[in-house]
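[audit] Reproducing an earlier prediction to check determinism. Same input, same settings, fresh worker. If the tokens differ from the archived copy the diff job will pick it up downstream; this log only records the rerun itself.
[audit] input (266 residues):
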Amino acid sequence: MRSSEDWTTPHKLAIVYIALAYGTDHVLSDEELEALEEALREWEPMEAPSVREVIMEAATVFLEGDAQTEVRRAIRELDSELSPQERRETLRHVIRIAEADGVLLEREQGLIHTLADAWSLKQLGEELVADTSAVVQRRGEDWGLIHELAFLYVLAAHSADEALASDKIDAMLDRLQEWQPDLSYEEVRAVLRRALQVYADQPDESLIHDSVEALKEALPSVQRLTILDDLHTIMSADGPLTRNERQLLLSLAQAWEVNVRLNGQG
């Protein structure tokens, strides 16, 4: 298999398509695979076996390598390799692949918007998502990055307690206010209540993973470190960190690719 360093343009397109079709929910439906193959054939006339070979090579790197790094590299290089019209057409292919299974997931929308922003096609991306024929799944129109942050705060605050201590609630409100000082105290409380409602619905691992990934993709490393400091403050508001709380912090640091030290252990 050739190295990703010397991939062709179809390979780079394939890994972006796979990131959308498989990377967002870890399921590649027959409909998504068919849409993916069709998109690649439209880009460059290829026989079916050749298309599948490109897909398999891209999928192998996605599954066995550093998927996020490869996807970011592909997006960056395609920005210069494709003409403005080709980038617009590729974005249309992306939305067709995303909606092929009849459902447009929140994480799929996020990747579409990330791609559109990177290629200066923000308006087109918003139009394509708004006009989709698929069922749009989201936590609500009122759910934004501040809610992802609040949700993670709640997860951290609840990791060691059945009931949320008032000290931890106050710490969460204070930290959320620092992230968006333009919000009133009541608006910040509303954000926290919304996150608590989502958390109360027994979020599964995929929902937690989505929040962690959304914050990683949206924020630079220095701000991810700030979040970890927030979480440490919230967790320790009612006493020393428990083993579970320490493990959660270290797991998040690893997921966000940042280094932390807890009492001399990092």
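[audit] rerun output stored. Observation attached for the diff report: The chain has a mean pLDDT of 83.
[audit] end
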